[in-house]
Amino acid sequence: MRHLSYILLALLTGCDGCKLDDPQPAPKTELEKLPPATQEGKNTFGCLVNGKAWYTVSSTRASAVYQSGILSISGTVIKPAVQDIAVNLEEDGGLIQENVEYQLTSIPYNRASIFFSLDCQYEADDTIFGTLMLTKFDKTNYIVSGIFSFETFTANCDTLKVTHGRFDIKYIP
Description:
This protein is mostly beta strands. The protein has one domain. Helix content is 8%, strand content 43%. The protein is built from 1 helix and 11 strands; from the N terminus they run H-E-E-E-E-E-E-E-E-E-E-E. It has a 6-stranded antiparallel beta sheet, with no helix packed on it. The chain is globular and about 60 Å long. The N terminus is likely disordered.
């Protein structure tokens, strides 16, 4: 009888958590691969580029600097090659504010640029349209968070549609 108890116990604990038709989790969508839209200075940066997830995998690859009235925000991806996306705001007689939609075609003040490869560099003048909104601009704790999107084109390269852009960075004053 004692043997039977041990066998039953082994069978029960050996299958602990077993399910016959345990479904595998669904693969993440491209949007779900992006970092969450936070406002805590987590040093994240991501967006969809032509529908594909593009995001920094290290907090050292997301950066922001706010000096002399210019706010520069960027993210860098190393693989498969070095690629950078940057958005910039410059105070134009006023202060940079939260929850204001800035047009990224107001050059030289507000602009976007992308370095995607040695052959495809999209400068601020190449931006067709785009917007940037700061959801948090904390000058005490040096946190800048926001959302952006833009479309850009340059000769001999694909048009890039950047959507669902988000960042949450501790900036350098």
